[in-house]
Specification:
This protein has a 7-stranded mixed beta sheet. It has a single domain, classed as Double Stranded RNA Binding Domain, CATH 3.30.160. It starts with 8 loop residues before the first helix and ends with a helix. It is built from 8 helices and 7 strands. Helix 4 packs across helix 5. By secondary structure, it is an alpha/beta fold.
Length: 288
C-alpha cells in the first residue's frame, strides 16, 4: 500500500492560521493526490450495454469545521456541469423520462471543528463525518470502535472489530481524518423505492483531497473528472490516485443539465428534501 506523507507541521499550522490553501498551493505541482472510497451497498444497474439513466440532485455546498477566510469554491453550475459530463462519459445518461437511479451529490470542505462540544464517552459528529469521508463503512466503524474502546465508552458497532491498536488501512483512515479535505460525495438511490418513500441506497462514491493540494475551484473539478470511473463500483480498500489540476477538457453534455420537477417523476418533494438534509447532516457533521 502506498505510504502517505503529510505536510510539515509548520505549513499545516500556517494554513490553519488563515494563510490558506492558495498560499500553500504554490509549493505543489499541478497534480493532486486524491482518495477514492467506492462502495456498492445493494445490487445496482451497471452501465454495460444500455446506459443507466439518472436524475441528479444537488445536495449543496458544505463548509464544515473551523472557518478559514479566502475559500473560492466552484459555482454550483460548474459542479453540476462537471458531474453530468463525467457521468455521461462513464455510461450514465440523463433521463428523459423515468430514471433507473436518483443521484445526489454534495461537495465542499470538511475541517476539524474545535468548537464542537466533546461527547462524554462518545464520538463528536464532526469527527465521525471526517472518519466516514476517508473510509469504507467497515473500516470507519472499526476506527470508531477503537476510539470508543480507549474512552471505555458505549455505542460500539458489534458487527466489526474493536482493535486495540490501529495498523495498516485503519491507521491510514485515522491519519487522513485529522486533516482538512476538499470532497465530493456522490450517492445513487433506487428510483422505484424513492417513489414509495423508501431511500434504498445502491452505491456511494467519496472523492477527497487534502485542502493544501490546491485551490478549491480547481481541486473539486479534478476530483469529479478523475473519480467518475469509480461511480457504482465496489472496493473493500481505499484507492489513491494522482490527478491533474489542469482544467479538464470540456466533455460533451447535451445541454445545461436541469433536473426535472420532482412531481413530474412522482417523487414526494418533502421526502426527497428530507433525504438531502439527512445526507447534508451526515456528511458535514453539523447537527444544528
Amino acid at each position: 500500500m502506498k505510504t502517505r506523507t503529510y505536510l510539515a507541521f509548520g505549513l499545516a499550522a500556517a494554513c490553519a492560521a488563515g494563510f490558506g490553501t492558495r498560499a500553500a498551493a504554490g509549493v505543489f505541482s499541478n497534480n493532486v493526490d486524491m482518495l477514492v472510497v467506492a462502495e456498492q451497498m445493494q445490487a445496482a444497474p451497471t452501465p454495460q450495454g444500455n446506459p443507466v439513466t439518472y436524475v441528479a440532485l444537488d445536495g449543496g455546498y458544505i463548509e464544515a469545521g473551523d472557518p478559514i477566510a479566502g475559500e473560492g469554491p466552484p459555482s454550483a453550475d460548474q459542479v453540476s456541469q462537471g458531474l453530468n459530463a463525467a457521468l455521461a462519459s462513464n455510461g450514465f445518461r440523463a433521463a428523459q423520462g423515468t430514471p433507473d437511479i436518483v443521484v445526489t451529490y454534495h461537495w465542499g470542505v470538511l475541517r476539524i471543528d474545535r468548537t464542537q462540544i466533546r461527547v462524554p464517552y462518545g464520538i463528536k459528529t464532526n469527527l465521525r463525518a471526517r472518519i466516514e469521508l476517508v473510509s469504507t463503512e467497515k473500516l470507519g466503524a472499526e476506527v470508531e470502535n477503537h476510539i470508543l474502546l480507549r474512552e471505555k465508552g458505549t455505542g460500539s458497532n458489534d458487527s466489526v472489530s474493536s482493535p486495540a491498536i490501529l495498523a495498516g488501512q485503519l491507521e491510514t483512515v485515522a491519519q487522513d481524518s485529522k486533516y482538512p479535505r476538499y470532497f465530493v460525495v456522490v450517492s445513487a438511490y433506487d428510483y422505484q423505492s424513492l417513489v414509495h418513500h423508501e431511500a434504498r441506497l445502491l452505491w456511494r462514491t467519496k472523492l477527497s483531497a487534502l485542502e493544501t493540494e490546491g485551490p478549491m475551484d480547481e481541486v473539486i473539478p479534478a476530483l469529479i473528472a478523475n473519480g467518475a470511473s469509480y461511480f457504482g463500483k465496489n472496493f473493500n480498500d481505499l484507492k489513491e490516485l494522482t490527478a491533474s489540476l489542469s482544467k479538464p477538457a470540456q466533455m460533451a453534455v447535451p445541454a445545461a443539465y436541469a433536473p426535472p420537477a420532482l412531481e413530474s417523476l412522482q417523487l414526494d418533494k418533502r421526502f426527497v428534501d428530507g433525504l438531502l438534509k439527512s445526507e447534508h447532516v451526515k456528511i458535514s457533521g453539523v447537527t444544528d
